[in-house]
Amino acid sequence: MECVFGIDIGGTNIKIGKFHGDEMAESRQVKTDKGAAGANIIADVARAVREMQGDDVIAGIGVGVPGPVMDGVVLGAQNLGWKELNVIKEFEKYFPGVVIRVLNDANAAAVGEWAYGGGAGFSSFIFMTLGTGIGGGLIINNELVEGASGSTGEIGHIRVGYHNDRLCTCGLYDCIEQYASATGIVITANRLRVGRETILNEVEVTSKNVFDYAQLGDEVCLEVVNNMVEKLASALAAITNTVNPEAIVLGGGVSKAGQFLLDRVEKRFRELAFFSVRDTKFALAKMGNAAGMYGCAYEVRKKICRLRSTADR
Amino acid sequence: MECVFGIDIGGTNIKIGKFHGDEMAESRQVKTDKGAAGANIIADVARAVREMQGDDVIAGIGVGVPGPVMDGVVLGAQNLGWKELNVIKEFEKYFPGVVIRVLNDANAAAVGEWAYGGGAGFSSFIFMTLGTGIGGGLIINNELVEGASGSTGEIGHIRVGYHNDRLCTCGLYDCIEQYASATGIVITANRLRVGRETILNEVEVTSKNVFDYAQLGDEVCLEVVNNMVEKLASALAAITNTVNPEAIVLGGGVSKAGQFLLDRVEKRFRELAFFSVRDTKFALAKMGNAAGMYGCAYEVRKKICRLRSTADR
Q: Which of A86, A313, B88, B232 has its CA 20 to 30 A from that of B155?
């Protein structure tokens, strides 16, 4: 049987899914070997893929990587130890003749959500993952927009402050990532809890605890959430004023705060966005950690279709 | 001979161009009659078009209006006194059987710049007009992106401050329009000149004077320019991090400051944008006030082509 693989290479784990058509037949997770500047990663993936292949014929492999991608070349993926790397060529060494599609991991997740998850039915939307960091992807006219240098959706680095208050991992100050990611929420919480009566002085300060105790009425936790919502809604307004998508889909670990978070972000967004984009819809991602695998599989199937329809002419 | 019209309806003047193919054969400017909630505008335009028609056959009319547009319906154009209005229907009353295309004026200018001006050769770019206000348009894959509610490119309302310092005409605070438009530059200049030794206390405080005297070394004028550049570069970084276009094209009256402005914006942008979008190209608009007419004519010709190719099937 013909199959494709959808592979999501992350800084901690690599998720590998084997697909028959739209259906994931099997999946596996392997540790990311960050040693030797990530030199073993692709060999590890190739071994797992061969083991999972069974009697199937591999038509294509879609790969998501945590960095900007241009024509199959990752411009750099710090979390893997990779500098510029032609990922298509590397995979072709192990899988000659197989169609390879490489895309940014957040873009892959956006496609997964569009095809099967929280973005289904929208012809245009912004996908934003709120995790340890913040990433995103942009779908317009039912197509992923990858950008002139593979960097569409680097929305974690929108500036939301003008006082050089929080240094971001990217080297800039006051990126939204430093306020609305799990990391950012912890920074705010650690500042606001000092000398205050709050559960945050008794439990571990995590994004999850902040949201859990905010819902139970802890005043400081609520303040932390409001602070995060203010910055997030401002960034989403900037994005929406620029591209006017049908919807905003929020994913990532922080979005597990669910409707409690969504309601607050949506309310403040409607106050901060330009009048004619205030009706932008909001939705939560549904595919969780599998979004990337599904998106990679979807995109490589599309590439195969296009190549075959061109070959038929 | 077959002709199309490209018409740019502004709050002060209406610019009407008659085109044979790509060439503007004739143009005319009429005052915008804002009386009676703009009820006479379309009749005035129709009269001028008939006068300019001569022996030509009108195949199409492209119309740019200062407001969000969805499927030919303007959702509201404050500067004209218009509430929601189906502009296609209104024009069809005067020109039955003629193809009508209605688009936002900044979007029309973006298309004009893309097809004939500063955006020529770029498959994707953000166009930003810095005038009394700030507008914009987005081209991706050589196509204008109009958005889910006709509001793509409302980039004048990106938030660049968090202290509710400057109230914008849109009702929000601290929109980039209040800092980087001609209006915003005057606000900053009037604040910074107080009690200082500067030419701004002797000449009229205008955006043009600020730039002219900044180039001659007036310290306060340079400070005003730097303040404007900081906010503008931040907004452009947010936009570019989101859509990763090939280029940014700056137009509008303020952009007449030319290379002096462009060099400063570009330099600060390269410091503030995410690393992988820092090579975004910068260009100045070239079409001036004619961009909208050219863009409207281009878009209606495209609509005619599509309708005819569908009819041929």
A: B88
| Residue B191 burial (C-beta neighbours within 10 Å; 0-12, 13-18, 19+) | exposed
Q: Choose among A138, A159, A243: nearest Cβ to B147.
A: A243
Residues B184 and B166: beta-carbon distance below 8 Å: yes
Token pair of A203 as six digits: 């439990």
DSSP label of A205: -
| Interacting residues of B35 by C-beta distance below 8 A, sequence separation 6+ | none
Is A124's Cβ below 8 Å from some Cβ in B? yes
Q: In whole angstroms, what is the distance from residue B6 CA to residue A140 CA?
A: 27
Write the pLDDT tens digit of every residue in A6-15: 999 998 999 9
pTM of the model: 0.93
pLDDT tens by residue, A251-298 = 999 999 999 999 999 999 999 999 999 999 999 999 999 999 999 999
Give the DSSP per-residue string, A161-177: -SS--SB-TTS-BSBTH
Q: Which CATH architecture has domain A2-104+289-311?
A: 2-Layer Sandwich (3.30)
Closest CB to B145: pick one of A75, A151, A243: A243
Q: Hunting for tokens 């000659």 — which residue is that? A: A96
Residue B155 CB burial class (10 angstroms; 0-12, 13-18, ≥19): buried
From the options 2.60.120.10, 3.30.420.40, 3.40.50.300, 3.30.413.10, give the CATH code of A118-286: 3.30.420.40
